[in-house]
Specification:
3-stranded antiparallel beta sheet; binds glutamic acid; Glutamyl-tRNA Synthetase, domain 3; 462 residues; 19 helices; mainly alpha; elongated; Arc Repressor Mutant, subunit A
């Protein structure tokens, strides 16, 4: 079997973490099985769909390298095809015109609720053997409803949730075309999944209710029924639904906040899926290992700390040259001109082990390119006349050194020994003056990277 999966977002907002995880699992399953992964933009809701949202989807998938096969499908370009099949269903007797007005539907609903029944269309326009239908009112443009089978059940073996069974009697006669003739959501999905030869429908479990309706439609069209995998929700850290604050923001926000795409992919893959105890894996390993048996059917919980941990892992392990390409534009946005690329690369090497994201990273190494102004609190703590003089003596002596990283570091050790003080006595004032903070990695290496002239200049300001 040629496996075909699809990602079918509605471009009505930003592409959030849940959406991207659905795309990732669909992509991984297709890759694992040498299949095809389709991108389909479900843009028939003209009022809510926007070109910006389409661009965000494309940009997000490109950033994460979730490449789709073939062209992008747009539902708005396929309206004629949907209409053709709606006509076919009417001709077959599987769909019918319904002239019930909005007011009548409201009345019906109120009556059913009063009588303790579940509100449901009562089938008054549904053609039936030996049933006489009302005369079509002239002023009303009818909708088209699907003749849902009255008896029997729809049953499928969900690849995530297991067996699901829904009785047809619980389903309404679904509207498949509105009174203006436009096809409705469930119908478009069914036609597309069929035409695009989708074998595995992988989507959020908020669509479980649509599945029996879609299966009935597929059956009426004589189309094959795909396999279904309904992914569980992702909850916020407090167990609530994801809100804008917690992970539901656009996936591009993660890029803007300094996360690496490989870290986001790795993190999302582990959200609801596992492969033994592996926490760190490449996208190639994911596409090799991915399997629905290991996808959990319970909700997954977003964990910011873990995302940061994984991002730190990828930052730590990325070559400095590659990190430099990502950090340089951020520094330039802050008005910094990088003259010496080696300073940038060396600063990156010195800091990369401790950094959780590229934005904090950039902020932490900014002082290499711009003389900092230490906060008053640190000045009061570490910079009195005595310590400033001490630092000045130190610079005079170190200036004579043969300038290598290890010589500079050894020199500091010797210097404190000679002066009979502890390391912080020199390190803290130096950090405060040179970096504007008391928290840095090895101060000797910082001095080495910046060079003696730069150091002297900074110290001369005090
Ligand atoms: N367009 C739907 C959504 O964005 C997905 C439909 C589907 O995957 O079948 O929620």
């Amino acid at each position: 079997m040629n496996i075909v999966t699809r990602f079918a977002p509605s471009p009505t907002g930003y592409l959030h973490i849940g959406g991207i995880r659905t795309a990732l699992f669909s992509w991984a399953f297709a890759k694992k099985n040498n299949g095809k992964f389709i991108l389909r933009i479900e843009d028939t809701d003209i009022e809510r769909s926007t070109p910006e949202a389409i661009e965000i989807i494309k940009a997000g998938m490109k950033w994460l390298k979730l490449n789709h096969d073939g062209e992008i499908f747009y539902q708005t370009q396929r309206i004629e095809r949907y209409k053709e099949l709606i006509t076919l269903l009417i001709e077959q007797g599987d769909a019918y015109y319904c002239y019930t007005s909005k007011e009548e539907l409201i009345q019906l609903r109120e009556m059913q609720l009063k009588e303790g029944q579940k509100p449901k269309y009562d089938g008054r326009w549904r053609p039936e053997a030996n049933k006489e239908l009302p005369i079509a009112p002239e002023k009303i443009q009818p909708v088209i409803r699907f003749k849902t089978p009255k008896d029997g059940v729809i049953k499928w073996n969900d690849m995530v949730k297991g067996e699901i069974l829904i009785k047809n009697e619980e389903l309404d006669d679904l509207i498949i075309a509105r009174s203006d003739g436009t096809p409705t959501y469930n119908f478009c999905v069914v036609v597309d999944d069929w035409d695009m030869k989708v074998t595995h429908v992988i989507r959020g479990d908020d669509h479980i209710n649509n599945t029996p309706r879609q299966i009935n439609l597929l059956k009426a069209l004589n189309a094959p029924i795909p396999q279904y995998a309904h992914l569980s929700m992702i909850l916020a850290e407090d167990g609530q639904k994801l809100s804008k604050r917690y992970g539901a923001s656009s996936v591009m926000k993660y890029r803007d906040d300094g996360y690496l795409p490989e870290a986001v992919i790795n993190y999302l893959a582990r959200l609801g899926w596992s492969h033994g105890d592996e926490e760190i894996f490449s996208v190639d390993q994911l596409s090799e290992w991915f399997d629905f048996d290991q996808v959990t059917s319970s909700a997954a919980q977003f964990d910011q700390e873990k995302l940061d941990w994984i991002n730190n892992y990828y930052i730590k392990n990325k070559p400095a040259g590659e990190l430099a390409k990502l950090i340089k534009p951020k520094l330039e946005d802050m008005g910094i001109e990088i003259i010496d690329e080696d300073v940038l690369k060396n600063a990156i090497k010195l800091y990369q082990d401790r950094e959780k994201n590229l934005n904090d990273f950039t902020a932490d190494i900014l002082f290499f390119f711009k003389t900092p102004t230490p906060p008053e609190e640190l000045k009061n703590k570490y910079l009195d006349v005595e310590s400033i003089n001490f630092v000045k003596d130190f610079t005079d002596e170190i200036a004579t050194l043969d300038w290598t990283d290890s010589n500079v570091n050894n020199f500091i050790k010797e210097f404190v020994k000679k002066k009979g003080v502890k390391f912080p006595a020199i390190a803290m004032p130096l950090r405060t003056i040179i970096a504007g903070t008391d928290n840095t990695p090895n101060i000797g290496s910082i001095i080495f990277i910046l060079g003696i002239d730069n150091i002297k200049e900074r110290i001369s300001l005090f």
